[in-house]
Structure to design on (686 residues):
């Protein structure tokens, strides 16, 4: 009895925190269910094993474990009380999960509600007819165990298990805009003809009607950034899917970083004059294209697309990120000057799409169909379970993210291998299925372009997507960075008119590893990853890419270091250290500042190899990245000389002799009358 009273008291506290004791519920109310959870391993033989209190988002892989043997892929059970209040009577109730990795089985009062396979898209279940008055027990059984019917089956990253994105309870009237259609907003803003003169759009709304179809109507308004109505439509409801053509005269176009202008689309479902439900979506109106010879165009003007691939992983949280984590990443991306981002290798959480909309960052977003690495090296198996999961992933991605103007490219797959007669195994042929997925993308959304990333002969993939791009690491694995020029020129000339881009390039670095003079060697399997090698690799690649506007996008691998159980290289096993920012986001590596000097017009000056503090060789080059007109070098307050940067915004003083002991390195440059400087200290022991 005491235990029951304690549980009820705890439930009341949790529900009060969630706000579920509100006296009145508006036509649609969304309650957070992030608090009040507890979890434990479901494989335990001790049924009395204690639960551990947790807050969502949560993953059991948040704590980094060095190496590959203790990467945990298992099953856990999460549970929490769910109380149906008096105000919820006569309403419809939906459980909405933004992401559970990878397989989720949901139970209410020990009865099955539903199952979802896939860890990076949202899902929604209605519980109206299963929930009882008062307290209910909500359970979610979660597994990130390896399965061939859940993507990804391969890949060079960790699949973090848990309810790693927020979850909610949605309460609506009996007639509502459906949250069940692939867990989407239920409202899709089709951009049919966009120009500076007019924006012709078609707002498609999916309804879920339990009471009646007669007498209902949809009122839709589009308002500008000043909250002024620029278009409106009111139609009667005669079907569960309603389409409303609308026109905005002389729209302000969403123009990337130049002007990421957003409109607000509000769709209201009415019974007479009574509001029954409302959905609000932000969007921007734009048109774009990619030319085989000239590259990417936004609203008719060339836009040089460059930026990072980004994994959704941060130190101490793994993929269970908080709002401040997304904001921090976006601020760093903006600081670099990037214009685009590839969200690798799965759909990311909603905040990153919102921030990209708001800041004008062009996105490539993709499903988790990837290889190589892991159990299934090729990344594809020709089974119905695998293919059904990929088909579902495409539909969920497109419908859930449909209204984001930042998304220009739907990604089909990454590094799926094809049997080429050069390997000892014969892989299942992925090409027919890749073409099928391309068709699904285009059937849902013909306004955007499809893309895929390859690391093998592109001839296999020509005709599988609108665009093709390469994961190619010149200067890191084998070939020197200057080889990129000929390689991509050859790819362009043999692509049958399909635009060619760079989906990944780069190299690894530890901020604690340094070398001078720099030895040119393949470091991919080495545990010594000097920061200077990464910087040199990026400089060489960008010199090639910057001269080739036909490359429709150039994406660095990768924004930040991240765990990968299969890696045994660099300073720390179990890590991919190709990030230009450290896993904890505290340190920007030298290569980050190379791109900042070239991409961001904000005046800057930066000394490289600044963390190479203890030096045995008294003779060294001193390299500075700057977008100023000239830079002056001082060592221990002695003026060494003034130089102008080259076309890659580099200044290099060669064969500089350091003093024995402390050397204070200072560089200065002027931006008009403003003096900019950077300083670091080195110690020469000889």
């Amino acid at each position: 009895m005491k235990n029951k009273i304690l549980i009820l008291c705890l439930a009341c506290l949790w529900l009060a925190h969630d706000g579920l004791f509100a006296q009145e519920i508006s036509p649609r109310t969304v309650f957070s269910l992030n608090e009040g959870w507890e979890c434990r391993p479901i494989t335990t033989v001790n049924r009395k094993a204690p639960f551990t209190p947790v807050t969502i988002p949560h993953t059991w892989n948040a704590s980094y474990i060095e190496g590959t043997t203790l990467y945990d892929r298992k099953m856990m059970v999460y549970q929490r009380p769910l109380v149906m209040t008096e105000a919820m009577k006569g309403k419809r109730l939906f459980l909405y999960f933004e992401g559970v990795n990878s397989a989720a089985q949901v139970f209410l009062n020990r009865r099955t509600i539903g199952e979802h396979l896939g860890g990076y898209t949202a899902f929604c279940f209605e519980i109206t007819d299963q929930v009882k008055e008062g307290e209910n027990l909500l359970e979610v059984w979660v597994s990130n165990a390896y399965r061939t019917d859940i993507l990804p089956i391969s890949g060079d990253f960790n699949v973090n298990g848990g309810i790693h994105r927020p979850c909610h309870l949605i309460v609506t009237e009996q007639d509502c805009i459906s949250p069940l259609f692939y867990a989407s907003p239920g409202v899709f803003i089709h951009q049919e003809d966009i120009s500076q003169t007019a924006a012709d759009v078609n707002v498609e709304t999916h309804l879920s009607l339990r009471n009646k179809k007669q007498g209902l109507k949809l009122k839709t308004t589009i308002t500008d950034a000043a909250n002024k109505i620029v278009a409106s439509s009111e139609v009667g409801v005669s079907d569960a899917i309603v389409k409303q053509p609308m026109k905005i005269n002389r729209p302000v176009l969403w123009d990337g970083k130049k002007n990421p202008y957003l409109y607000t689309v509000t769709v209201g479902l009415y019974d007479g004059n009574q509001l029954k439900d409302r959905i609000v979506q932000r969007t921007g109106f734009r048109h774009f294209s990619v030319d085989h010879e000239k590259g990417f165009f936004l609203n008719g003007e060339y836009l040089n697309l460059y930026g990072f691939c980004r994994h959704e992983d941060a130190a101490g949280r793994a993929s269970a990120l908080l709002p401040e984590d997304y904001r921090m990443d976006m601020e760093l991306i903006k600081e670099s000057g990037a214009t685009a981002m590839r969200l690798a290798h799965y759909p990311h959480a909603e905040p990153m799409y919102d921030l990209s909309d708001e800041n004008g960052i062009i996105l490539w977003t993709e499903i988790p169909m990837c290889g190589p690495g892991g159990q299934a090296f090729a990344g594809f198996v020709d089974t119905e379970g695998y293919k059904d999961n990929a088909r579902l992933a495409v539909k969920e991605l497109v419908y859930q993210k449909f209204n984001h103007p930042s998304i220009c490219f739907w990604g089909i797959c990454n590094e799926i291998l094809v049997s080429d007669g050069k390997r000892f195994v014969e892989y299942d042929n992925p090409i027919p299925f890749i073409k099928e997925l391309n068709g699904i993308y285009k059937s849902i959304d013909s306004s955007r372009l499809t893309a895929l990333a390859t690391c093998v002969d592109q001839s296999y993939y020509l005709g599988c997507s609108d665009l093709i791009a390469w994961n190619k690491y010149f200067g890191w694995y084998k070939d020197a960075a200057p080889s990129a020029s000929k390689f991509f020129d050859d790819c362009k000339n043999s692509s049958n008119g399909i635009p060619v881009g760079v989906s990944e390039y780069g190299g690894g670095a530890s901020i604690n590893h340094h070398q001078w003079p720099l030895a040119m060697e393949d470091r991919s399997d080495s545990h010594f990853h000097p920061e200077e090698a990464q910087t040199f690799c990026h400089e060489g690649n960008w010199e090639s890419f910057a001269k080739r506007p036909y490359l429709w996008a150039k994406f660095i691998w990768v924004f930040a270091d991240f765990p990968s159980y299969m890696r045994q290289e660099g300073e720390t096993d179990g890590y991919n250290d190709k990030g230009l920012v450290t896993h904890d986001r505290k340190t920007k590596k030298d290569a980050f500042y190379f791109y900042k000097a070239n991409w961001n017009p904000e005046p800057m000056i930066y000394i490289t190899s600044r963390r190479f503090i203890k030096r045995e060789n008294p003779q060294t080059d001193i390299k500075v990245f700057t977008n100023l007109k000239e830079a002056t070098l001082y060592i221990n307050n002695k003026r060494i000389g003034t130089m102008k940067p080259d076309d890659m915004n580099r200044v290099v003083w060669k064969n500089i002799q350091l003093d024995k002991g402390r050397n204070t390195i200072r560089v200065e440059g002027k931006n008009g009358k403003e003096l900019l400087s950077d300083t670091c200290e080195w110690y020469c022991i000889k």
